[in-house]
């Protein structure tokens, strides 16, 4: 199955470079290019993209707003957004994860990292290293004033709906552990861990593991630590 990729970046040179890289792979193709967020949302629908490589800073509708639009559209529930950023420790990156992005990738990453990220996102799995995402969220949330953020008021009730085991798994996911590592710690099978993760995602309204990590930190279930 060919992964349909949409490129959203206001720099034509970067889009051209990404297109050459993506189109060189036999299992993926670029189905469109957008220079702003509004065009990205429109083309995502028209071209039935599977993965959107989304720049944050674009004129007009930026990548953050576009990510929210895509995540809020029921017809685009299977679309995965990968945020491309120049600065990996970036307030907007965490806001994008909250808005529904699957994860982030620095623009200085190696070509193989980008291609691997597309495949992982298309498969609905955790994007890149969970530990990397965990570190970013922890550093960001540790500096935030709880009174100033946009937390979901209904999240606490949904967190209470988790079973003891699901909460335990959520804490370990937020710690950057893979399913195999969690299975070893809890002495269960990786399939059992995957089931708990999927149930936690369903109950918390999370699209993927990245959003589970955000929820674990924002809810206070896991406390951020700054190095």
From TrEMBL:
Residues in coiled coil: none
Sorted UniProt keywords: DNA-binding, Phosphoprotein, Transcription, Transcription regulation
Domain (HTH luxR-type) ranges: 155-220
Positions of post-translational 4-aspartylphosphate modification: 55
Keyword Phosphoprotein: yes
Gene3D superfamilies listed in its UniProt record: 3.40.50.2300
Residue stretches making up the Response regulatory domain: 4-122
Superkingdom as given in the UniProt entry: Bacteria
PANTHER family (alphabetical): TRANSCRIPTIONAL REGULATORY PROTEIN NARL-RELATED, TWO-COMPONENT RESPONSE REGULATOR
Name of the protein: Response regulator
Taxonomic lineage of the native organism: Bacteria, Bacillati, Actinomycetota, Actinomycetes, Kitasatosporales
